[in-house]
Amino acid sequence: MTAVAANWLRQTRRTYFGNAAAQRDFRVQLRGNRSVMLFGLYLAILIVVGFFKYGEIQTNASISVVQAQRELREFYTLIVMLLGGMVTLVTPGLAATAIVLERQRRSLDLVFSAPVQPRYYLVGKMIAVYRYIWMLLILSLPVTAACVVLGGASWSDVLTVYGLLSIHGLLFAAVGLLMSTICGKPVAAVVWTYGAVAALMGVTGSMAAASYSFRMFGPGSGGAAAPFAIGLSPFSVTYAVGTYTEILGYPVPNWLMAAVVVLIAVRLCLLGAGALLSDGRETPNLRINWAILVAGAAYGLCYWFVASGGYSSLATMPAYTPPENWPFRNVDGRAVILGYGLFWLLTPLVLVLPNLVAYGGDGALRQRPNGWFGFRRMLDGTPAGALPYIVSLVVLACVFGLLGIKTAGGDLPSASFLVYPLYAIGFWGLFWAIARTASSYGVGLRAARTTLVAAFVVLVALPVPFLAAVSAETFNEKGISAWDLYLLRPVLQFKEVNIAQPLVYGLGLVVIALGLNAWADRNWQRKGAAVRA
Amino acid sequence: MLEVKNLRKEYGGLTAVKGVSFSLQPGDIFGFIGSNGAGKTTTIRMISTLLEPTSGTAILNGADVRKDPMSVRRMIGYMPDFFGLYDDVKVWEYLDFFAAIYEVPVRERAAIIDNVLELTDLTVKKDAFVQSLSRGMQQRLCLARCLVHDPALLLLDEPASGLDPRARSELKELIVELGRMGKIVIVSSHILPELADFCNTVGIIERGEMLAFGEVDKIVRDLHPTRALEARVLRDAAVAAEVVAKLPGVLNAAAKADALRIEFNGDPEAQAEVARALVQGGHGLLAFREEQADLEDVFLKLTTGAVN
Q: Closest partner residue to A20 among B74, B87, B100, by Cβ?
């Protein structure tokens, strides 16, 4: 026992202190004039912005003390937003090429023939990026210190915001490392990293905005209670400080909640990157880790879903009577809102599905056909695990969503809610079957993935202008309309909800998906065999 | 000691290595011969723990590549058929990085780096950037990297490819020196005469199967049971051929001008008897030697299926 603990301590010390990969990268980062010039430019921008903003406040002699205080607070918020922008822009760029460049120069084999685990190497890369971000944050201290001196913020505000910003930097670095591990070329890694960060910013930004409006206009508006999602965007970290989320009657600081959620996301990204780097050999450990962490992350999201914005009031009011103009007046509103949330929370599958489902002989060796449904294959990212993965995500989201409602003290929705999970499985099942069908022709991994992306475009994006042209209204149209033919119609009705639609679509899509898959399997037996030969 | 037991690797429907087995002792320099795609690199990568075998295993000084890969990694130095160098660092920084990941204590690193640089004749380039080194120097730097943690086993995959004759000769000397230091060295190469020069053991692999394994001389002897002796005499070569043809172990003897070619399958005593007969017969023996079978001949003979 003592030996195990001593070994763990030694490994941890080796990983986090004096990590060779971090030292090497940091040495290269700071070599030459590039860093000095970048730091100089960055400081100059901060000083210029600070100078003009402060000058604007100072020259206005007629404002009251309260107004001046508010202006100084805004000045502080502006500086923090600038820092948030800096973290968002610089971190992904630093991390995106960290692994892919090593793979390109073929030095990864040399590193992993040494007694080095993916964890050690990834943490080393993270430290190098993180240290650089901290240097940029520390360089900005004189400007934020001016906010403290002038009365825009307190020192504890500044330190908490810096901590939260650096944790966001950690997440962007983790996303960059994951993309860098997945992609084969540096340019692709950079593009995908910035794409992923942009998508993340879109999701967390809207969550933070919804939380901010809840704080300002929801029940008990103007108080310190706000959903923790307010701290999930680096641009809104100032609002996370000083606010709290009530969990089971206890106020938990939002910066802490946001930090925990972001750190879970960091861990997920690093686990994914580690699994790819270790060629799946760490999968047994990963299964346990993924199961726990995905459950935690799903719970967090569903808690947010239930606790924030209008959902909270809906879920926690058993005797709720919808107003006249409420679109879900004739159906169970909780079921519809929970169902819509369930479906739209799964949209990141668009990015994941092509990599999970398609198979072929021209890519990674593990993307060979290995069956169509295998629970054991779920977490190693091979094709047989794709369908169980989709189903598990839907089931997990349902369970934790319902748990979230109970935790928030609300009534469970009626059984009509179940049509939405069915629809979600049908929708994603259809694209799963399309990818398997394309793969079954033996066209190769890339072509099969491209076909799936094309199918998304053809079935989801292209019908929009066509249907808009033939229909008088938008997808929101009441009653029978051409929009009923649109695949996403069951989760796009905001004026009048027809609960039969998701049921019919769900059943139909499941049948089509299973039929297509059966055909694809037969096709692979014939065409695939020819390709193999 | 390295013991490779029935090592096998399958990729989908393709079997890249089909149960390779051999064992090597400290000081052995093992030449791994095979054409492109024969399974050399896959075998080396499995021994270096970079690839997980489908079945079978390799045990290095008691550590199993499947059960205890980290211990194996501490004992091996792997040099792939590409350099994989970091261009943006200095030579000593590069070695310092690898010394650190091999857990060489900080206080010992400087001395070890100096030693390996001296061994690979790169001391003068210690502060140069890696990108400024010539190809031969980069190859030596790769070898220096493999040595920073004093490994028991060196896996060198095509180490001489792309090197000029001088660099190749220097590398050969270095490998011989490493063998003398008691390390097990596995070298894969296409340049067969070179391997024959400094390897004491060779293995020939084709389509994932080890066709022959053992000491170079033994393999050659096994594949050439009849050897050829050549002699040059001063006079009466035809008479000498007739005399020699009657001796034990001689299968055939033919004279051409002053040269005799004798096909022979006898033991060393019988071979000495042939030489003695030529001297005592008064033919004026000028030269007498055994024609060495070439490793390349053996390789071509084996891999064309002549043995099977």
A: B100
ipTM (interface predicted TM): 0.80
Whether A110 sits inside 8 A of B88 (CB atoms) is no
B interface test, pick of A26, A107, A110 with most B CB neighbours within 10 Å: A110
CA distance A17 to chain B (A): 12
Residues of chain B with CATH 3.30.70.100: 225-292
Distance, in Å, from the CA atom of B70 to the CA atom of B50, rounded to the nearest integer, reads 11
Do A254 and A396 lie in one domain? The reply is no
Confirm if A496 and A326 have CB atoms less than 8 A apart: no
Regarding whether A315 and A271 lie in a shared domain, the answer is no
In chain A, the number of structural domains is: 2
Q: Give B-chain residues touching A105 at CB under 8 angstroms.
A: 84-87
A80 contacts: CB under 8 Å, gap ≥ 6: A144, A161, A165, A237, A238
Does residue A431 carry a pLDDT above 50?
yes
What are the DSSP E strand ranges found in chain B?
2-11, 14-24, 29-33, 55-60, 63-64, 76-79, 153-157, 184-188, 201-206, 209-215, 227-233, 250-256, 259-264, 285-291
Same domain as A411, residue A269: no
Residue of A nearest to B65 (CA): A113
Distance from CA of A276 to the nearest CA of B (A): 13
Q: What is the pLDDT of residues A227-275, one digit of tens each?
A: 777 888 888 888 888 888 777 677 888 888 889 888 888 888 888 888 7
| 3-state class (DSSP) for residue B263 | strand
Q: Which residues of A touch B70 (CB under 8 A)?
A: 115, 117
Query: What are the chain A neighbours of B71 within 8 Å (beta carbons)?
Result: 115
Query: Which of B47, B85, B97, B156 to mutate to probe the A interface, most A CBs <10 Å?
Result: B97
Query: Topology of B2-221 in CATH?
Result: Rossmann fold (3.40.50)
Q: Are A215 and A225 in contact (CB under 8 A)?
A: yes
Report the topology of domain B225-292: Alpha-Beta Plaits (3.30.70)
Give the gap in angstroms from C-alpha B229 to the nearest C-alpha of chain A. 48
- Residue A283 within a domain: no
The residue segments making up the domain with residue A52 are 10-278
- Rounded to a whole number of angstroms, the distance from the CA of B12 to the nearest CA of chain A is 7
